[in-house]
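4.2 Preliminary Data

To establish feasibility before requesting continued support, the project team ran the inverse folding procedure on a target of 239 residues. The structure was first converted into the token representation described in Section 3, and no sequence information of any kind was made available to the design step. The complete token record follows.
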């Protein structure tokens, strides 16, 4: 592998009727892969692994919502790959996965037992490369993101979207925590970071700092001037 080739590669596979962005990422040198947020459609994900010639090494979970984690148990049963994540504060969401799946017409969704809880500052390995773990509460209390510093790439789950942010009207969601997670933990990583959100198209941190109506620099400045009663725009994000 030449020095100009990226250390990792990725394929985005939207799954379930909620079109959640499941990301298959792999070490370019070893072809060892991780599936981030296998919300469902496990046979299709297994086929992608086969088509790309990959060996599944890890299953990574950003947070415990059904559309992000409903297929983790089945994927582990089929492959033996360990499940890493999310943060333990999302256990109560993991416990509800089967019930939520039945409500959304996805009866195959199952709860799971993680092999490793993750916390802020942890590192997860994949082949000969590694990702940093950043705890970003707000959408859920135990939400984490996966960041590859060398590749300038992040999978952020439902923290941030192109033009929007994650919902915080779920149990134990917190709007201010989410804003703090984005502006204090994501923005310092760099404007050039390209990210895969939980739903919808990719974007970059720089683009969202310029134009996102919730967390652009201008929006944050307006909130600080107006104070706590400032009304931010209505959140229409799917996550």
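Position-by-position output of the design step:
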């Amino acid at each position: 592998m030449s020095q100009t080739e990226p250390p990792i590669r990725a394929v985005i596979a939207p799954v379930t009727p909620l079109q959640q962005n499941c990301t298959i990422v792999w070490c370019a040198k070893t072809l060892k892969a991780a599936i981030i947020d296998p919300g469902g459609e496990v046979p299709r994900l297994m086929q992608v692994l086969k088509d790309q010639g990959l060996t599944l090494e890890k299953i990574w979970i950003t947070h415990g919502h059904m559309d992000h984690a409903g297929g983790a148990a089945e994927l582990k049963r089929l492959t033996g790959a360990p499940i890493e994540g999310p943060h333990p504060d999302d256990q109560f969401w993991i416990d509800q996965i089967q019930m939520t799946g039945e409500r959304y017409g996805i009866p195959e969704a199952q709860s799971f037992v993680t092999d490793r809880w993750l916390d802020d500052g942890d590192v997860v390995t994949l082949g000969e490369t590694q990702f940093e773990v950043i705890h970003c509460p707000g959408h859920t209390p135990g939400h984490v993101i996966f960041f590859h510093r060398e590749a300038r790439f992040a999978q952020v789950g439902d923290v941030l979207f192109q033009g929007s942010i994650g919902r915080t009207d779920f149990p134990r969601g917190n709007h201010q925590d989410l804003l703090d997670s984005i502006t204090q933990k994501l923005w310092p990583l760099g404007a050039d970071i390209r990210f895969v959100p939980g739903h919808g198209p990719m974007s970059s941190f720089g683009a969202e700092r310029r134009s996102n109506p919730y967390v652009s620099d201008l929006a944050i400045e307006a909130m600080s001037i107006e104070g706590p009663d400032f009304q931010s725009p209505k959140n229409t994000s799917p996550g």
